[in-house]
Amino acid sequence: MAPSRLLLVVALGLTGLGLWTFKRLDLDGPEPPPTSGPTAHARDPIVLAAPDTRKTTPELTVINDHGETRALSTLWPNRPVLVHFWATWCAPCIAELPGLNELARQSDGKLTILPISLDRDAIEETRKYFAAHHLDALAILASAPGSPTPEVLPTSFLVDRMGREAWKAVGAHPWTGTDVQTAIEALQ
After folding, report:
1. What is the pLDDT of residues 44-86, one digit of tens each?
2. Spatial separation of the C-alpha atoms in residues 50 and 37, rounded to whole Å
3. For residue 32, how far is the Cα from the chain centroid?
4. Up-side HSE of residue 99: CA atoms within 13 Å toward CB?
5. Is there a contact between 170 and 39 (Cβ–Cβ < 8 Å)?
6. Digit-coded pLDDT (tens) for 130-180
7. Distance of CA 180 to CAs 40, 46, 154, 172, 185, Å?
8. Which position among 37, 46, 157, 183 has the lowest Cβ density within 10 Å, counted as fewest Cβ atoms?
9. Could you tell me where the beta strands, DSSP code E, fall in 1-64?
């Protein structure tokens, strides 16, 4: 291929990539308003479902770092819970773990955070990952065999004090925002 032809092909490719990036960044239009239902895009601020519309959270079962299998509902003592499904191979999951760790440190017992790993050998992988990245405020949990799990990671949901789903998001969420603190206070 002649150098001038190769240069033309590269230039067209870069132009296409630039247009794709521009469209991907959604710079050509306004953001849609946040979804007000219980499932929203993760980058949207948390908008809790009205108490009378909340559904009971499905019973999930986890394995803790001591190898004990527990029903998720036994892990929160009458307070709001953030259930977070993640894996070490999931880049968006990894990106939000420091924010979750900081949220766990600052929650002062107002919120229980349950990060449930879907890794193969999840307890060991989580233990190694948390130690290597100084994520010392998060519990080490894995999904038990047969327990329902989401199809997309990360997936998070806030559960109210009565075990009902108040908010759910698919995708990474910025856990250090004021919307998180507002939601926690509202769930008290």
Report:
1. 889 999 999 999 988 899 999 999 999 988 877 688 999 999 9
2. 9
3. 21
4. 16
5. yes
6. 999 999 999 999 999 999 999 999 999 999 998 999 999 999 999 988 999
7. 14, 7, 17, 13, 9
8. 37
9. 39-41, 55-56, 61-64
Q: Is 106 helix (H, G, I), strand (E, B) or coil?
A: helix
What's the token pair of residue 4? Answer: 């001038």
**Domain residue spans of the chain:** 1-30, 39-187
CA distance 155 to 145: 18
Residues 60 and 115: beta-carbon distance below 8 Å: no
Q: Which residue is it, tokens 């107002």?
A: 110
Tell me which DSSP letter residue 141 carries.
Answer: E
- The two tokens of residue 34 are 């946040």
- The residues pairing with 55 across neighbouring beta strands, listed in sequence order, are 165
Number of residues assigned to the chain: 188
> Domain 39-187 - what CATH class?
alpha beta
> What is the C-alpha radius of gyration for the chain, rounded to an integer number of angstroms?
20
Query: What distance in Å separates the CA atoms of residue 30 and residue 28, rounded to the nearest whole number?
Result: 7
Beta-ladder partners of 113: 82
* Single-letter residue type at 187: L
